[in-house]
Design goal:
Alkaline Phosphatase, subunit A, 37% helix, alpha/beta, 13% strand, 8 strands, single chain
């Protein structure tokens, strides 16, 4: 049994209002709860408080660190931290990384995202919580010019549109082919994480049409993954760090809870171990 975790940045549980919620406007089914509807389609749900007991709008650096370590990063910092984790959070990711804990348990975790050498070798690295968590476990990074071109990794924009506009030669993917890449990785690993952040970017900077497109892309990816995955053999987990895209009438994060959606093998057993964002890493390791 293996777990595929799909992390979509900035996706909370919104209201069923097609005039403001892009997921409601596109009639999302797999992510119906994000659209203000029900889970359905065999999913189990726990709604997670992204506030972590700290005043203010939830933010990415602390939310992602919490999800990937089990440590309440916002309480540790005394506030929510925006963007990328800073020096206060680096030791937490180094010691408490989900990837490290899985590796120490004798499992085979991997990060499905493709990297450029410029990003990894920059003099002033701008590393996300996921990148630092992978590095802490000593796992190899998947590179765009090797695993990416070979169909064994996806860029943070799974279509490849973002890197191609910046001059990289990338494989073109639609939701179906991207889902195939992710499901094939499950055959050789116990845990696969894929991170997609254009949802948050579109919510901050995009037009209404941009927001609709991102809602369609993540809904389509989840749908295609579930079409290919054997629920009696594997598990799919979908979650986020804070709300944003589900409230398309403004460009700020929200106080909405974030979903922990689970499909497949031992779904209820995993969900029973989670009541807060700090429980996600321990529950995945134990599962």
């Amino acid at each position: 049994m293996a777990t595929l975790m799909l992390f979509f940045d900035g996706v909370g549980i919104g209201e069923n209002d097609p005039s403001t919620n892009p997921f409601s406007a596109i009639g999302a089914r797999r992510l119906g709860v994000v659209a203000g509807g029900t889970t359905g389609n065999g999913a189990g749900l726990v709604a997670l408080d992204a506030g972590l007991g700290v005043p203010g709008l939830p933010q990415s650096a602390t939310g992602q660190t919490t999800l990937l370590t089990g440590v309440n990063a916002s309480q540790l910092c005394g506030q929510h931290r925006v963007g990328l984790p800073g020096p206060t959070l680096w030791p937490v990711l180094q010691k408490e990384s989900l990837f490290l804990k899985l590796k120490q348990a004798g499992k085979r975790p991997t990060f499905a995202n493709a990297y450029t050498r410029e990003h990894l070798e920059a003099k002033r690295p701008r590393w996300s919580a996921s990148t630092r968590a992978v590095k802490a476990a000593g796992l190899p990074f998947r590179m765009w010019d090797k695993e990416g071109l070979a169909g064994k990794a996806l860029f943070h924009d799974y279509t490849g549109e973002w890197p191609r506009r910046r001059g990289y030669t990338m494989r073109e993917h639609d939701a179906a082919s991207a889902a195939t890449v992710l499901c094939e990785l499950l055959e050789d690993h116990d845990f696969v994480l894929y991170e997609y952040f254009l949802t948050d970017l579109a919510a901050h900077r995009g037009t209404w049409q941009d927001k609709l497109e991102q809602a369609r892309r993540v809904e389509a990816l989840v749908d295609e993954v579930l079409r290919r995955l054997d629920p009696g053999k594997h598990r799919v987990v979908v979650t986020s760090d804070h709300g944003n895209l589900e409230a398309g009438d403004h460009k700020r994060h929200t106080f909405n809870p974030v979903p922990l959606l689970v499909w497949g093998q031992n779904r209820d057993r995993l969900l029973a171990r989670v009541t807060a964002m700090t429980d996600v890493t321990p529950a995945l390791v134990r599962a």
